[in-house]
Amino acid sequence: MRNYFIIALLVFPGVFSCINTKRATYFNKIKDSVTYDSLQIPEHFIKPNDLLSINISSANPEAAKIFNQPNQSEIRSTTPTGDIVEPAGYLVNKNGSIQFLILGTIKAEGLTTHQLQEHIRNALLSRKLLLDPVVKVRFLNFKVTVLGEVARPTVITVPNEKITLLEALGLAGDITIFGKRSNVLVIREEAGKKVTKRINLNSYDLFKSPYYYLKSNDIVYIEPNKARIAGGTRFYQLLPTIISSFSVIIIVIDRLGN
């Protein structure tokens, strides 16, 4: 009887594969005291369906007040996880333009937020609508999505329009021990096409990659390793064997009892 339990103790731990610790850590191939040049933060260009916040101020607040009326009201939608409120702002239409009060149609597609700021400011000055106006433009729909083997798959809204791949993973609760750190997939839309890039988080090449800083609507996918895939099916594969083993043990116990 005792022998059966000894065998069980020796066999069952082997059912579960061990995970290489090097594959479960970041940057294990990066040497100490190495300096990497900082990457330039990428510029983000306005596209159709972007939602923009445009705020205008001047020495005369009352005169500027009329220009701070968004062309899209706050939108509230209900999902299984609760209500989602989309902020009010200027929606870039399919032609790449926004409708701005008094100034009319303004072409925004292809511009950075800074370029759009200067365009609106110059238009206000040339038409003598405001004295020394200050224009602030930012994205309201700058977001990235993190899926796969992370603690909390999520959509991350980025208010300052700057987020790195590592920051996104941190906000998603980090990669689980079952995620492939050497094969992180980033999906990005450029010039109307989907572009994919594989990133190795164990390599210093990450710090030189144009994918180190994420762009709006990027999707980050963490692929499960073999241990996760095997673990999901191993129990069902071994279930007949486990049942047979316990049946034998029960029969033996029953016979010893007699």
Q: What does this protein structure show overall?
A:
This protein has 258 residues and is an alpha+beta fold. The chain folds into 3 domains: 2-18 and 227-257, no CATH class; 21-41 and 142-224, Roll (Outer membrane lipoprotein wza fold like), CATH 3.10.560; 51-138, wza like fold (2-Layer Sandwich). Helices cover 26% and strands 24% of the residues. The protein contains 5 helices and 12 strands. The strands form 4 sheets. The protein has a 5-stranded mixed sheet, with helices on one face. Strands 4-1-7 form a 3-stranded antiparallel sheet. A two-stranded antiparallel ribbon has the order 2-3. It starts with a helix and ends with a helix. Residues 4-19 have low confidence and may be disordered. The chain crosses the membrane at residues 235-253. Residues 45-138 form the Polysaccharide export protein N-terminal domain. InterPro entries: Poly_export, Poly_export_N, Soluble_ligand-bd.
Q: What's the total count of β strands?
A: 12
Fraction of helical residues: 25-40%
CATH topology call of the largest domain? Outer membrane lipoprotein wza fold like
- SSE order in H/E notation? HEHEEEEEHEEEHEEEH
Name the overall outline: elongated
Radius of gyration: 28 Å
> Unreliable stretches, pLDDT < 50, 5 or more residues?
4-19
Strand content bin:
15-25%
Main-sheet strand order equals 9-8-12-10-11
**What's the end-to-end separation, in Å?**
14 Å
Please give the oligomerization state of what you see.
Answer: single chain
CATH class of the largest domain: Alpha Beta
Mean pLDDT: 81
